[in-house]
Design goal:
19% of the residues lie in helices and 35% in strands. The strands form two sheets. Strands 4-1-6-5 form a four-stranded mixed β-sheet, sandwiched between helices. The protein has a three-stranded antiparallel β-sheet with strand order 3-2-7, with no helix packed on it.
Length: 155
């Protein structure tokens, strides 16, 4: 068996209302809710990756505040147990107010076409592991809640 790694890079973006940006998507034949971001491409650094993903997904530049978390345990990919997922999360903010559509409901897109995506804010006080689809994202929820309580997220 050929064992492989995939590296994913995500932005945790928190607004002035203490809401975190979530991405509702149709990927791998299913609906999922995750943090904005995606796969690292060969030859790319992790910060370059998340900035590229922000431009591709939201059409906006982000500024990295600091590293938040990197996976520190074995997590197999949902679609292939021979692929290990390593996820890297950065606290980030928009350089300008969001100009893309912010939805008020989950999965605010037409049909189940691969790549469909919508964005929405979720109050951190209401955020729970069950709101996210991916196992590593679920772990990051507690880190975000700790940020809020420690007031270490700069506005």
């Amino acid at each position: 068996m050929n064992k492989q790694f995939t590296i994913r890079v995500y932005a945790v973006i928190i607004n002035e209302k203490n809401e975190v940006l979530l991405s509702d998507e149709f990927r791998l034949g299913m609906k999922m809710t995750k943090f904005p971001g995606g796969g690292l491409e060969f030859g790319e650094g992790t910060i370059d990756c998340i900035k590229r993903e922000a431009m591709e997904e939201m059409g906006q530049e982000i500024e990295i505040i600091r590293h938040l978390y990197t996976t520190d345990y074995f997590q197999p990919a949902l679609h292939n147990p021979d692929i290990q997922v390593i996820s890297i999360y950065y606290l980030a903010k928009f350089k300008e107010k969001p100009k893309f559509k912010i939805s008020l409901s989950t999965f605010d897109f037409d049909g189940e076409e691969e790549g469909n995506q919508s964005f929405r804010w979720k109050a951190i006080s209401d955020l729970s592991e069950k709101d996210l689809s991916l196992p590593i994202d679920k772990k990051v929820v507690s880190l975000i809640k700790n940020l809020q309580s420690s007031d270490s997220y700069p506005k």
